[in-house]
Specification:
The chain is an alpha/beta fold. The protein has 16 helices and 19 strands. Helix 8 packs parallel to helix 10. The longest helix is centred in the N-terminal third of the chain and has 19 residues.
C-alpha cells in the first residue's frame, strides 16, 4: 500500500457499526415513548418476514484484558451470575409485553465481557428463559464469544445442545511479551484444546479474533500467530485493528503508551503481512477486518449480497429489529437506536421498576435513514448507488466533490449513479464512509473521539 496514502488518510474516524455513530446521537437522547413506538413498528413490519435478533451482554470477566474496549465488570465472585440472568429475563419480559405476537428469533449472540464466565447451567437457564416466550426461525444462527482459558467442554456441549453452532475465541496474539502487556496470558495449547472440542462436538463455524497494532507487536509475532492459527484452521477470522483510545477506555489502556505501539507504517505492515498470509491459507476478506473460508456462511452472505453490519459487527443475515439485553447493550429498530444503562446497579434498578433500561438513544430522521443505507452498502459490499431518488440527498454533489480526490488516489471508482471500492482500497473503507457522514461533517469534533482509520 502506498505509504503516502497511509499518511494522508490515517485520521481518526468511526468504525460504523451504526449511523449516526454514537457520539452524534441526539444529545437529548430518545423519548421513551418514541423508543417503544419504533420497537413496536419494527416488530410488526419484520417479525413474520425475517424474525428478530437478540444481542445479550454478559459483562463479567475474572481479569482485565488491558486492550479491551468493552463494558465489563471484573470479579471472581460467581454468585453474581444468577441475579444478573434473572434481570436479563425480566428485561426480555418487558419487550415481549410490547409484541402483539410471539417473537420469531433468527439470531442470538452472547457477547461480553466473558459469556463463558457463566456456568453451563446458568447459560441454559438464560437461553431456555428466552426461548420459552419465542419460536425459532427455520434458518437461525446462535453464536457466542468465549475465552479459551475458562471455556470447558461442558460449556461447549451445553450451548451446542441449546442450538448454538457458531463460537468465537479471543486469541489476539501468541507472543508472550504482547500477552503479558495486555494481561491476556493463554497458550496455544489451550486455544487448540477448545477448538478441537468444538469440532468434535459438531460446531459448524468456529471463529478466532486476532488483533494487529498491539503494544510490542512485531511482524514476526504476526507471522508466528497466523502460522499457529493455520494449524487450527478456523472457519472465520476477525483480524482487528487495535483501537488505542485511553481517553475513552481509561485505566486498562493507560497501562502502556503510544511509544509501546507500532507506528502507523509498522501497523500497516502488520496488516498487510497478516492479510497476505490469510489469503495464502484460502481466507477471503469480508467487509472490514473479517476473513472467512469459502465454505462459511459469512462468505456466502457476501457473495449473495446479504451481508449485514450492526452493533454485533458483521452478520450473515439481516433482521430489521435487534433487541439488546443486558447492561450497556444497544438495540436497533432501524428507525432508532437505544443503549441500556452502563452500570449493573442502574440497569438492575430500572428493570426492577418495570422500565426498559435505556439511558440514551437516537431517533433517525429521513436524512439519517438515507445516509445509513449508503454507509451500510459501502461497509458490507464496498459499493453504493444513488440511481433511485430515494437514495439521493441535497449534499450529494458536495460529497462527490470530496470523492473526486479519492478517485484520483485510486480509492474509489465513481460512475454516474454510484461508486465502488477497488480491492486494494478496502483498508480505506472507513475514510470513504466519512465522506457521506453528514453528522461528522457538520459537527467536526474538536477533540479526538475515534480511533485511527488505518
Amino acid at each position: 500500500m502506498n505509504t503516502a496514502l497511509i499518511h494522508k488518510y490515517n485520521i481518526p474516524g468511526p468504525r460504523y457499526t451504526s449511523y449516526p455513530t454514537v457520539p452524534f446521537w441526539n444529545k437529548e437522547g430518545i423519548d421513551y415513548q418514541d423508543w417503544i413506538a419504533t420497537v413496536k413498528q419494527s416488530f410488526k413490519e419484520s417479525n413474520q418476514k425475517e424474525g428478530i435478533s437478540l444481542y445479550i451482554h454478559l459483562p463479567y470477566c475474572e481479569s482485565l484484558c488491558t486492550f479491551c474496549g468493552c463494558h465489563k465488570r471484573i470479579t471472581k465472585q460467581h454468585g453474581v451470575e444468577e441475579p444478573y440472568i434473572d434481570t436479563v429475563l425480566k428485561e426480555w419480559d418487558l419487550y415481549c409485553a410490547l409484541f402483539d405476537e410471539k417473537p420469531q428469533i433468527k439470531e442470538i449472540h452472547l457477547g461480553g465481557g466473558t459469556p463463558t464466565f457463566f456456568s453451563p447451567e446458568n447459560l441454559e437457564k438464560l437461553i431456555n428463559g428466552i426461548l420459552a416466550k419465542a419460536t425459532v426461525c427455520e434458518e437461525y444462527e446462535f453464536s457466542f464469544e468465549a475465552h479459551p482459558n475458562n471455556t470447558t467442554k461442558a460449556h461447549l456441549q451445553k450451548l451446542y445442545d441449546l442450538g448454538f453452532r457458531r463460537n468465537s475465541f479471543g486469541v489476539q496474539d501468541y507472543d508472550p511479551k504482547v500477552q503479558k502487556t495486555i494481561n491476556r496470558i493463554q497458550p496455544f495449547e489451550k486455544v487448540k484444546e477448545v477448538t478441537d472440542w468444538s469440532k468434535e462436538i459438531g460446531y459448524t463455524s468456529i471463529s478466532q479474533d486476532l488483533v494487529f497494532g498491539l503494544p510490542h507487536q512485531t511482524k514476526e509475532s504476526i507471522i508466528d500467530t497466523i502460522n499457529k492459527t493455520k494449524e487450527l484452521k478456523p472457519d472465520r477470522i476477525a483480524f482487528y485493528s487495535y483501537a488505542h483510545v485511553p481517553w475513552i477506555k481509561g485505566v486498562g489502556q493507560r497501562g502502556y503508551d503510544e511509544n509501546d505501539l507500532p507506528t502507523a507504517d509498522e501497523k500497516r505492515v502488520l496488516y498487510e503481512t497478516g492479510k497476505q498470509l490469510l489469503d495464502e491459507l484460502g481466507y477471503v476478506e469480508i467487509g472490514m477486518d473479517h476473513f472467512a473460508l469459502k465454505t462459511d456462511s459469512m462468505y456466502q452472505a457476501m457473495e449473495n449480497q446479504t451481508l449485514h453490519r450492526n452493533f454485533m459487527g458483521y452478520t450473515a443475515s439481516k433482521t430489521q429489529l435487534m433487541v439488546g439485553l443486558g447492561m450497556s447493550a444497544i438495540s436497533d429498530t432501524w428507525y432508532s437506536f437505544a443503549q441500556n444503562a452502563k452500570t449493573i446497579e442502574e440497569y438492575t434498578e430500572l428493570v426492577n421498576e418495570g422500565r426498559i433500561p435505556i439511558f440514551r438513544g437516537h431517533l433517525l430522521s429521513n436524512e439519517d435513514l438515507v445516509i445509513r443505507q449508503h454507509i451500510l452498502n459501502i461497509m458490507c459490499h464496498f459499493e453504493t448507488s444513488w440511481e433511485g431518488d430515494e437514495l439521493k440527498f441535497p449534499e450529494l454533489a458536495e460529497c462527490l466533490e470530496k470523492l473526486a480526490e479519492m478517485e484520483k488516489d485510486g480509492l474509489v471508482t465513481i460512475t454516474e449513479n454510484g461508486l465502488t471500492l477497488p480491492d486494494a482500497a478496502r483498508p480505506f473503507v472507513r475514510n470513504v464512509c466519512m465522506v457521506f457522514d453528514l453528522h461528522l461533517i457538520r459537527n467536526k469534533p474538536t477533540t479526538r473521539i475515534f480511533s485511527m482509520t488505518i
